[in-house]
Amino acid sequence: MVPDLEPIYAKVGNAISDRLPNEWKVARVEVIYYPENVNYFGEFLHSDNRIGSFHLGYELICSIDDLRQKFRDAGQPVWGSVVFELHADGKFSCKWSYDNCDENGNRRWDADEWTRMQNERSERITM
Questions:
Q1: Measured between alpha carbons, how far is residue 72 from residues 24, 59, 82 in Å?
Q2: For residue 107, how many other CB atoms are within 10 A of its CB?
Q3: Domain, as residue range, for 20
């Protein structure tokens, strides 16, 4: 069991909403930990149904990294990736994945997968 996650979840949710424009429906943050680097991505669905990206900012990145460290400190396996979803009505979800992780909890690098994800993201972003 990992203690005291709720305050970090609240901090992540608040930091996401602080980075968004006034009119949005859903925001999504995806973080992937690789052995040599970390990829942070932020996207949101605007009220007019266009999809935009946003810079996560220092506070949000630190909050997410703090959450992962909580797992490590509790002796739990750390996840190689995590997706946060925040709806304008306050609904919040967090899904982490251990898929394709090494013994340190980092996702194994796959250049083809990374390129595919980047291409899909580029096609989605309309603003």
A1: 34, 20, 15
A2: 22
A3: 6-124
pLDDT tens digits for 54-65?
A: 999 999 999 999
Number of domains composing the chain: 1
Distances (CA, A) of 117 to 30, 73, 114: 11, 31, 5
Task: Decide if 75 is inside a domain.
Answer: yes
- The CATH number of the domain holding residue 81 is 3.30.500.20
> How many residues appear in the chain?
127
Q: Is 49 helix (H, G, I), strand (E, B) or coil?
A: coil
d(CA 110, CA 100): 10
Q: What is the pTM of this model?
A: 0.91
- Token readout for 5 is 């996650």
